[in-house]
């Protein structure tokens, strides 16, 4: 996190009331920070045409369409899945890195019992994966991890996978393997309704912008500032471990705007009626399930599960969208629906 002292005043959009709300919000999520609670290569796909991630992923500067660099679906068990199934007793669970602070994606509902039950769109998908692999949707050990720890947690074997609004991009596919996309979004600006900021444009000049450390948002701002797309005077030094911390800083008047995925920003706006999305999304991005690069059988299995999840009219992608996201993103899910998946093939 970049160390910056708080400003001497709130920016005229809530005063003491906003400060009190922010403090309560920060305290609640601090108390919830503790969450209760790897892997090999699969035999060749039944098509005989797929390649492993290690064979297919090229240098970052040659990367094109990273969301298409995933393996074909396959329901077969391989060494990674076998290792998960062979865990004994209470440890026979899928270990998944998630968020617990992203409203309607992965968050703890304080009204769902002691400690709060993890709920949201990403959590629904995790339960679906656990049910397919282990026969029990609740055979999951959730591990709450900050944004910049998603890749280290996978590489170190602390989790089997990460399902945490994680964008598939060229830099990340050098370190982890992704499933096919399960959600489409794009970066957007979040700011107070009274703010002069109008979107991702010249109105961000001289404004302090908050992003999550290790996020696509930060890397985009950094690159755009070098090319001149983002005003050079925009201050992008403020980064935080978890995206919700940006909302708290915005409420406290410590920053002027937040840049994050539009899907997350919409949920944050739903939590605080004094802020709103400014302008349209200025990137196109896709969320994927992240796993170890060597876990080819698990990647194929997750892609098989996603095919079924998208096609299930009763308890699949659309029903989860309606339940969790329609209130913030709108009833029409077509803009958020993942594209028809494309998979790696031998050339």
Short description, anyone?
The protein has 347 residues and is an alpha/beta fold.
Describe the protein.
A five-stranded mixed β-sheet has the order 11-10-12-9-13, with helices on both faces. The model is unreliable at 1-50 (pLDDT under 50). The chain is 31% helix and 16% strand. The longest helix has 17 residues, at 15-31. Helix 1 (15-31) runs antiparallel to helix 7 (243-251) and helix 4 packs across helix 9 (296-311). The chain is an alpha/beta fold. The N and C termini lie far apart (44 Å). The protein has helices at 15-31, 53-56, 79-85, 121-134, 150-155, 216-227, 243-251, 262-271, 296-311, 317-324, 326-329; strands at residues 94-98, 101-102, 106-109, 117-119, 140-144, 161-162, 177-178, 183-185, 187-192, 208-212, 235-240, 257-261, 275-278, 285-287, 290-291. It is built from eleven helices and 15 strands. The radius of gyration is 20 Å and the shape is globular.
The poorly predicted ranges are 1-50
Give the N-to-C terminal Cα separation.
Answer: 44 Å
Approximate helicity band: 25-40%
Tell how many strands the DSSP assignment holds: 15
Q: Which outline best applies?
A: globular
Descriptors:
single chain; 347 residues; alpha/beta; 5-stranded mixed beta sheet; 3-stranded parallel beta sheet; 15 strands; 16% strand
Question: How are the elements arranged and paired?
Answer:
Layout: H1 15-31, H2 53-56, H3 79-85, E1 94-98, E2 101-102, E3 106-109, E4 117-119, H4 121-134, E5 140-144, H5 150-155, E6 161-162, E7 177-178, E8 183-185, E9 187-192, E10 208-212, H6 216-227, E11 235-240, H7 243-251, E12 257-261, H8 262-271, E13 275-278, E14 285-287, E15 290-291, H9 296-311, H10 317-324, H11 326-329
Parallel strand pairs: 1-5, 1-6, 10-11, 10-12
Antiparallel strand pairs: 2-3, 3-4, 7-15, 8-14, 9-12, 9-13
């Amino acid at each position: 996190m970049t160390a910056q002292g708080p400003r001497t005043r709130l920016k005229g959009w809530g005063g003491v009331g906003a400060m009190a709300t922010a403090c309560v919000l920060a305290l609640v999520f601090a108390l919830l920070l503790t969450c209760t609670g790897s892997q090999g290569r699969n035999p060749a796909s039944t098509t005989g045409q797929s390649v492993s991630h290690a064979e297919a992923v090229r240098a970052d500067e040659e990367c094109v369409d990273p969301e298409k660099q995933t393996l074909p679906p396959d329901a077969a068990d391989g060494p990674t899945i076998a290792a998960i199934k062979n865990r004994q007793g209470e440890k026979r669970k899928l270990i998944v890195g998630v968020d617990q602070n992203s409203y309607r994606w992965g968050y703890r509902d304080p009204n769902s019992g002691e400690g709060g039950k993890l709920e949201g769109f990403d959590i629904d998908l995790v339960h679906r994966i656990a049910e397919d692999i282990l026969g029990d949707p609740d055979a999951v050990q959730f591990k709450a991890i900050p944004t910049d720890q998603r890749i280290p947690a996978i590489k170190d074997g602390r989790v089997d996978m990460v399902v945490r609004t994680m964008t598939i991009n060229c830099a990340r596919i050098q370190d982890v393997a992704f499933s096919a996309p399960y959600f489409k979004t794009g970066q957007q600006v979040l700011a107070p309704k009274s703010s002069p900021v109008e979107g991702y444009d010249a109105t961000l000049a001289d404004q302090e912008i908050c992003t999550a450390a290790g996020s696509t948002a930060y890397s985009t701002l950094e690159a755009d500032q070098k090319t001149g797309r983002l005003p050079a005077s925009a201050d992008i030094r403020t980064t935080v471990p978890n995206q919700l911390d940006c909302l708290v800083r915005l409420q406290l008047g410590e920053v002027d705007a937040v840049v994050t995925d539009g899907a997350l920003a919409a949920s944050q706006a739903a939590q605080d009626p004094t802020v709103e999305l400014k302008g349209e999304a200025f990137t196109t991005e896709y969320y994927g399930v992240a796993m170890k690069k060597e876990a080819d059988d698990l990647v194929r299995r997750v892609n098989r599960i996603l095919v079924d999840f998208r096609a299930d009219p009763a308890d699949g992608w659309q029903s989860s969208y309606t339940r969790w996201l329609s209130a913030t993103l709108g009833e029409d899910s077509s803009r958020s629906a993942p594209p028809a998946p494309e998979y790696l093939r031998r050339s």
